[in-house]
Amino acid sequence: KAVVSTQSTGIIDNYKHGVWPDFHWIQVTKSCDICSKDYAVIEKFETLERDHYYLLKTIGEEARYPGIAGLHSNPSLSGRRDPRELVDHYFSQIDKYILWDLYTLYKDDFTVFGYKPHYRLKKNPYAH
Fold this sequence. Notes:
- There is one protein chain.
- Helix 1 (6-16) packs across helix 5 (96-105).
- The protein is mainly α.
- The radius of gyration is 17 Å and the shape is globular.
- The two termini are 23 Å apart.
- Helices cover 40% and strands 0% of the residues.
- The longest helix is centred in the N-terminal third of the chain and has 11 residues, at 6-16.
- The protein contains 6 helices and no strands.
């Protein structure tokens, strides 16, 4: 069953009318000068443990934080450790039209952070 989130539809409706409900929902590419920075590491939530360990190892601090693995795990998603499974799990709960609208809204962020469109986003559901 697809979930229709009032938060998601509110974000989409506000965006279509040129109004942002809260600065937390503004696209990263529009809210700061991220493109002008030369980042060595970008951590993503779905691979946070791996990315954080890589960062600690890169700066030679992994020994100081031996318990970092598992720190950010979500017990309700046990068995779904693969980021692709997590994305599929969450995207499958969102109505295809809302998902498309959110993707369209955050498309620049997808590109900047190296996300490829999920298979549910490859076809515009509004096109007939």
